[in-house]
Amino acid sequence: MTGLWTLFKKEILRFWKVSFQTVAAPVITALLYLLIFSHVLESHVKVYDELSYTAFLIPGLMMMSLLQNAFANSSSSLIQAKVMGNIVFLLLTPLAYWEVFVAFLAAAIIRGLVVGCCVWLVALFWVDLPVTHPLLILAFAVLGGGFLGALGIIAGIWAEKFDQMAAFQNFIIMPLSFLSGVFYSIHSLPPFWQKVSHLNPFFYMIDGFRYGFFGRGDIDPAWSLSIVGASFLAISLLTLHLLKIGYKLRG
Amino acid sequence: MNPAIKIDQLHKSFGTFEALKGIDLTIAQGEFFALLGPNGAGKSTLINLLAGLLQPTSGRLSVMGHDVQGDYRKARMALGVVPQELVFDPFFTVREMLRFQAGYFGRGRENDAWVDEVIESLGLTDKAHTNMRRLSGGMKRRALIAQALAHKPPVLVLDEPTAGVDVELRQMLWAFIRRLNQEGMTIILTTHYLEEAETLCSRVAMLKQGRIVALDSTDNLLNRVPGKQLRLKLDPPRVPVALQEYIRSQEGGHVTLALSDPARLEFVMAQLREAGVRVEDIEMLEADLEDVFMEIVRQ
Questions:
Q1: Are residues B185 and B231 in the same domain?
Q2: Containing structural domain, residue B48
Q3: Within-domain flag for B298
Q4: What total number of domains does chain B contain?
Q5: Are residues B32 and B66 in the same domain?
Q6: Boundaries of every domain in chain A
Q7: Strand order in the sheet with B155-159
């Protein structure tokens, strides 16, 4: 297990050494969203009866930051190593494909959790969130981070250039996270768009995560947890398969 | 004792291009072996297959008796590879990188003494805490070699390790690699500097268009090009018809003739005298690996 542990440690150190960019920057971005949206919409939007819009927004922003950073960690590590060529140092090692998967995935989840927690800490200045179901919060955070971490590995394996990675991020990750109910309850949408939202796995991650805080959400959290869990399992199997056959890594 | 490397009927194709066309090669433990060939001969493909960076189309490879595909963990444990390009991880210092590299191979704290020894032997002590990004080209090359050695493999593959490296560093590197070889490490080297292969390696394989066209001890290969070479400066620079068949190369006023027997010298001089050509300078040269290489590549 020394090999797996070493790779995990390296992946953690990699983002920690540039934490200004990998942790502080996304926290500031989330904070800006919080300031702007809560200022503009606080008095106009009522989501659940007695809940302020700012309180509603914070778990969504936490989860969105968590997801985006889990994706960024594994994807940027792989694409950089591929473009720089130092991926060979990983490919030459006796690490098994599943060890590479576990190390990259765990580091991605940790980065997501660190950023999510920092957003929470900063947001405490505005609203003290209730924590109704802490285990549910943790489960959605880990599974959601895991899903995006695995997606990041796939993107990192697939992309050959930085602009392909940017396309993956801008055309898939950003729309899915913005249209997942971070900024609104999907009940406020027309029926057609409500249906479309149900096809977005990010919606279940954010709604379930939010349920953990307030004890209420758009849909049943057990249903959300099942969908998120199944999505995580499916994408993990796909990632493991790609790593096993050496897709785009070993010609 | 298992051979360090064993390759059987290895084929590798990229689409319709056949890069390797049936390679058979066995390298014994402790050998200092050279893999030579013109650009595109398949040297790097062969090394990448050995390292598991590529998958063979057909055939088998093993390192220290471990199949590169089926028993990849043990095969990779036994192999250290110095890649041709100057690649590096920009996030870490030399020492951090080496510790990580050793860690990937399951080596822990007990390996630190070896890592320090490698750092010192390669003259990297002053740079151990420097970020890889800040190293000069020569220092990066040393760090690459150190990385390949971090887990103390019994077989070391160096892919063009001295390309673009100054003379001083080259000699230092070879002294170090030679020491490793004397301590029992098997060394496999690809190089464009044929004199390096000639002085360092006991056995040589020459590749051409995906096939091994020569595989022999360095001495036997050198004996393949018979006799001596005669380098002459002539005035006027004109080679008589009777000597045309001996010409190996000709540039400016200099002409190099290949002689199967040193006794042919008399014949050459007689022909020149008869043709009224004056000899301004004369030099006898031994055949070197480059001649063998040119000879084989020409065929």
A1: no
A2: 5-223
A3: no
A4: 2
A5: yes
A6: 2-245
A7: B79-82, B155-159, B186-190, B32-36, B203-208, B211-217
Cβ-Cβ contacts under 8 Å for A105 (sequence gap 6 or more)? A74, A146, A149, A150, A153, A236
With contact defined as beta carbons under 8 Å apart, do A92 and B53 qualify?
Answer: yes
Q: Is A89 on the interface with B (CB under 8 A)?
A: yes
Q: Indicate which CATH number applies to the domain containing B235.
A: 3.30.70
> What CATH code is carried by the domain that includes residue B198?
3.40.50.300
Distances (CA, A) of B1 to B60, B65, B157, B188, B297: 19, 9, 20, 18, 34
Q: Do B53 and A6 touch (CB under 8 A)?
A: no
Supply the pTM of this predicted model: 0.88
Is A94's CB within 8 Å of B72's CB?
Answer: yes
Nearest to B232 by CA among B267, B257, B263: B257
Distance, CA of B104 to CA of B128 (rounded, Å)? 19
Chain B residues close to A84, C-beta within 8 Å: 87-90
ipTM: 0.89
Q: What is the pLDDT of residues B205-233, one digit of tens each?
A: 999 899 998 898 888 887 777 667 888 89
Q: DSSP letter at B30?
A: T
At residue B93, the 3 state secondary structure works out as: strand
Instruction: State yes or no: pLDDT of B71 exceeds 90.
Output: yes
- Residue from B89, B109, B110, B144 to probe the interface with A (highest A Cβ count within 10 Å): B89
